[in-house]
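Attaching the record inline, Q. Sequence:
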Amino acid sequence: MTPAGYILIDLHHRFGNATGVQIASSRPDAVTQILIGKTPEQLLDTVPLLFTLCGNAQASAALLACRAALGMATEPDIDSARELLVQLETLREHAWRILLDWPLFIGLAQDKTALATLLKFDAWFKRHLFRHGEAFKLDSRLDVDAAQLTNLTDALEALIDVSIFNGRLADFQALTCEAQLHDWLRRNDALPAKLLNYLYSQDWAMTGQNDIACLPKLDAEALNRQMQREDLATFTRTPHWQGRCFEVTLLNRQLSQPLISEMRSHYGNGLIVRMLARLLEVALIPFQLRQLLVQIKNDTALPINNTESNGIGLAQVQAARGLLIHRLELRQGRVHDYRIIAPTEWNFHPEGVVAQGLKQLTAQSLSDLQRQAELYINAVDPCVQYALNLTDSRNEIEAHA
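Structure, as predicted:
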């Protein structure tokens, strides 16, 4: 199961211009209470049952937090294998948005067949990476079939090339500037090209641009010190870093890419930059999988022993939607406290990047305003259902989705 809850977004407007945004979350805190009192082994058996969305990232974060709390050595080769599974999951989650959600914005049919095939890769990779396919246990062991994993990676790349890029994946990977992007869009009738052309035609490329910065890489010890000073219940619901709101979306991971760097110079963190960042991450993941396979095969790094854990373990994992943080405290070998800060808590913070982005919307009609808001929310991507209410200046709900 994925813990229940949803996000309620009230977008206030006047004559098509956003005038204010209110975001409230009904996501329960009770999910982590299920983990209290469990041994690390029991915890790691339970987490996959709680999270079907981004399950690999959640299980990886839980395992890393447990290992840190127990003062166990890192496992470079096995950690690379687990990171491969998180990357594979990231590709799947992005493809879900692209193949199922993007067509609806421009009146096209969804591609459920390709997605159904993509969903099978997780089990296939686990089977050829780990003994008994068990990736996220304290005693997991590698059982690598390099030839099969290479074939699977090739098949995965071929699938996204056809289903998402219409055979022009290599051309997209080579893009470094907007001029090249326009040329790719003119020559391609793939779904992403159609959606990006739609954004350009509507003059929505900069939609949602705002001043919320991407979260810098956090030192684990510094983050743990801040969390120890905070009320953890409040911090997990409305996280911040040094008193500021930040975004932790997939855009954070693509900032150094030449295409994203140039597009940001023109469009900031607006809608088209976010769409391109998702496409670019999808395009680059097969290459990253191959790099991880090489690391698994040739890893010579020495294990690092975690010391002075004091029974506290903190893990940071880059999940599909952004930074995922798990923090646990063990006492007498059992979980005394457990906290999870998902990307949604950062990105849908009442004063965060979604709130600030929606405040910038302007449109010629109510339907355009709603479409802009839906596109922007989809691009940032919550990990739960949301309800969007468009409210006029008299607080009358005019439309919802």
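Strands lie at 6-14, 17-25, 312-319, 322-331, 334-341, 385-391, 397-400. Confidence is low (pLDDT under 50) at residues 396-401.

More tomorrow.
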